[in-house]
Design a protein that fits this description.
Number of strands: 18
Distance between the termini: 44 Å
Largest sheet: 7 strands, mixed, barrel
Radius of gyration: 24 Å
Number of domains: 2
Strand order of the largest sheet: 1-5-4-8-9-10-11
Oligomer: single chain
Length: about 375
């Protein structure tokens, strides 16, 4: 089972600092929540995502000995971590650094972490797991997940927030794509490499989302999913990238995915006809490293708003509005981009999502008859201009 580690950006500096005590190794205990992905939409595999929730740096009393090449800790404080993990349903973890620059978990690390895993499973049950983080002087972070004394999985690591940084299991860098040379000159090769590694979900395939998805593919995204419940109408054709007259009646997301495939850029693109609110799309949502939201409904935005903060997954929410002045016919167009992550104001705080509208839209989806009755009685504001 593949595993991913998510480190919120607000904890990233603490993670780096906890790994070193001057030129000596140092460490910290950690607590992770987790999310199971039964089927990764791109690979079809089972995944597990661990999200760092709390870091407890080692105190001087917790360290038996330390040098530039070793760290020996006392486990008394670890027992308190295990108690808290068991009570809250979290996974315990251990973090340490290699100030010497040695870029792998060492045989000594293996032995120490097996001992920690034994303590975890003795205290919290035989199915309990241990997550281990290794911090390097260049700020790179490596991770692995222990399930048994002989079953250990290398993990990818993502630092998420207003910016996203990703570390894979191997040290090898992605090949430089000559087609993206000008982009690399502006943002650097690391930008291109990171974008190629991310799983990106675009919610909506309409007038704002279709150019976005195409631009992501052209910019070097390699794993892209698009979800939208609607089909193409003739009045959509002037603003849906790649849509043809013969596509009228086809699913917007699938038509857009077909267009991106035909570009020949090697993008693993999925087009899903559905509503992101529906439970059958939970794996699609939880698998994403970044979500772009430009859905028209308040209920979908409400879900993604909550998702960003609970799963520490950045959501980039976009809106475009056109207003017409009834008196003189003048039109005004406004656009908005909001990045959602813990520490940033949410869509409710910004006045973007109307909770009443979200409730009404969810009622319409779940119970159309009750919705119609409430419209008739004046309890629902009802409808919107397409």
């Amino acid at each position: 089972m593949i595993a991913d580690i998510v480190i919120p950006a607000r904890l990233a500096d603490r993670v780096r600092e906890a790994g070193f005590r001057g030129e000596h190794e140092n460490g910290a205990w950690a607590l992770f929540s987790s999310a199971s992905i039964l089927r990764d939409p791109w690979s079809g595999t089972t995944r597990r995502r661990f999200i760092l929730r709390e870091l407890r740096p080692l105190a001087a009393i917790d360290i038996d000995s330390s040098s530039p090449v070793h760290l020996t800790v006392r486990t008394a404080s670890f027992m308190r971590v295990l108690k808290d993990a068991g009570a809250a349903g979290l996974t315990p973890g251990f973090l340490h650094g290699h100030p010497s620059g040695y870029g792998q978990f060492s045989p000594t690390d293996d032995d120490n972490e097996r001992a920690l895993l034994a303590a975890v499973q003795n205290r919290n049950g035989g199915q309990s797991e241990l997550v281990s983080l290794l911090v390097l002087p260049n700020s790179a972070v490596k991770a692995r997940r222990w399930r048994t004394a002989t079953s250990v999985d290398e993990c990818t690591v993502a630092i998420t927030g207003v910016r996203v940084r990703r570390f894979d299991c191997s040290d090898s860098a992605s090949a430089i794509n000559p087609l993206l040379d000008r982009q690399a000159r502006i943002f650097g090769h690391e930008f291109n490499q990171t974008l190629a590694k991310l799983r990106i979900l675009v919610v909506g395939a309409g007038g704002t989302r279709s150019p976005l998805a195409v631009m992501l593919a052209r910019a070097g995204a390699k794993r892209l999913a698009i979800i939208d419940p609607d089909t193409i109408e003739a009045t959509n054709l002037h603003r849906l990238h790649g849509a043809r007259m013969e596509d009228v009646g086809a699913a917007k997301a699938q038509s857009l995915a077909r267009h991106i495939e035909e570009m020949g850029l090697g993008v693993n693109v999925l087009g899903v006809r559905g509503n992101i609110i529906d439970p059958q799309h939970r794996d699609l949502l939880k698998s994403a490293d970044v979500v772009f939201c430009a859905t028209d409904d308040h209920a979908g935005r409400m879900l993604l708003n909550r998702f960003a903060y609970f799963y520490e997954t950045p959501v980039i929410d976009m809106g475009l509005a056109v207003a017409k002045d009834a008196s003189d016919g003048r039109r005004e167009m406004t656009g908005r981009v909001s990045i959602l992550y813990p520490g940033a104001p949410c869509l409710i705080c910004r006045g973007v999502v109307d909770m009443r509208r979200a409730s009404e839209e969810e009622l319409l989806r779940r119970d159309p008859e009750n919705y119609a009755a409430q419209v008739k009685e004046g309890y629902v504001l009802g409808g919107w201009d397409p």
